[in-house]
Write a structure and sequence with these properties.
Layout: H1 2-27, E1 32-43, E2 60-71, E3 74-78, E4 92-93, E5 99-102, H2 107-112, E6 123-125, E7 144-148, H3 149-156, H4 165-168, E8 173-176, E9 180-181, E10 188-192, E11 201-205, E12 214-216, H5 224-229, H6 239-256, E13 259-261, H7 266-277
Parallel strand pairs: 3-6, 6-7, 7-8, 12-13
Antiparallel strand pairs: 1-2, 1-5, 2-3, 4-5, 9-10, 10-11, 11-12
Bound molecules: zinc ion (ZN).
The site of zinc ion (ZN) has 4 residues, from loops.
């Protein structure tokens, strides 16, 4: 009899553990990630992406991805590519002679490919406010723009004389100072990583079904070698701060065992595409 009671007890413990595990599995939040191509950028003078002459005479092809994160509590768009005026047949060689730029299609058409419309977004955030990340931002006027307060002040604050119309169109603003958990459950977190601009940020996403969480770099790095060599572009807001952010980023990426995606890298784009299609 004792044996039977013990056996029953053991079975009930096992089944209890099983149901706990099941509850944990079903608890996983259904977060989806899509990447879209907001532009192609041929860098004709790669030396602007270094503090020294390392890349003098070199060129490099960049992509310009933006991202859609679908969470049960709403959709977030991360970054906004190049402006739609650049949806043209031939790349535009801008006057400084550094970039040849082009966008493949309009925001509305690109969203259609993933079954969404411009009005479907609750939140909008950008890694930072450079021209190749704010392209179609004005369309996001009904969403809440989540932005670091210092970045906001530097781009559309009261003291700014010439404000970018893509950004002034955004009137629902949530100003943040530091890291921000977008949906309150830890699955989608904006991480403050200043240096490229005053309020530059990166995005951490726990995508359902993916083995590792994804960490979108913004412009903390522009290509793979930047990451290994800790290369800082000549036009960054603050070099020291950038290097500190790189350290902070690498520590966080390691702690989370994250898949690091360099947003301007065509190699990273392909890598993420394969992961998301699995
Ligand atoms: Zn930038």
């Amino acid at each position: 009899m004792k044996k039977i009671i013990f056996l029953l007890l053991a079975i009930s413990i096992v089944s209890c553990k099983k149901s706990e595990k099941k509850a944990e599995e079903t608890k996983q939040v259904d977060v989806k990630l899509h990447q879209l191509v907001g532009g192609s950028i041929l860098v004709k003078k790669l030396e602007v992406f270094s503090q020294d002459t390392t890349y003098t005479g070199q060129q490099k092809q960049f992509t310009d991805a933006y991202y859609v994160i679908s969470h049960p509590k709403g959709n977030l768009m991360w970054d906004a590519g190049l402006p739609e005026q650049l949806v043209v047949a031939e790349s535009f060689h801008e006057p400084s002679g550094v970039f040849a730029i082009q966008r493949p299609d309009s925001l509305a058409n690109q969203l259609k490919t993933i079954g969404l419309k411009i009005e479907d977004f609750k939140y909008f955030a950008m890694s930072h406010s450079h021209f190749d990340h704010i392209g179609h931002a004005s369309y996001m006027k009904d969403a809440t723009w989540i932005v670091q307060e210092n970045e906001y002040n530097a781009t559309v604050g009261d003291s700014v004389k010439v404000k970018n119309p893509s950004l002034t169109a955004l009137t629902n603003v949530k100003k943040i100072n530091g890291d921000y958990d977008v949906f309150g459950d830890g699955t989608v977190v904006i991480k403050y990583m200043p240096g490229h601009t005053v309020g530059h940020q990166v995005l951490y996403v726990e995508v359902a079904g993916l083995e590792k969480p994804v960490l979108l770099t913004g412009d903390l790095y522009h290509f793979e070698e930047n990451r290994t060599n800790k290369g800082v572009p000549s036009f960054n807001y603050n070099v020291e701060q950038t290097l500190e952010s790189m350290d902070k980023f690498e520590t966080f990426a390691k702690e989370k065992n994250a898949e690091v995606i360099i947003q301007h890298s065509p190699i990273a784009f392909e890598k993420l595409e394969k992961l998301l299609k699995k």
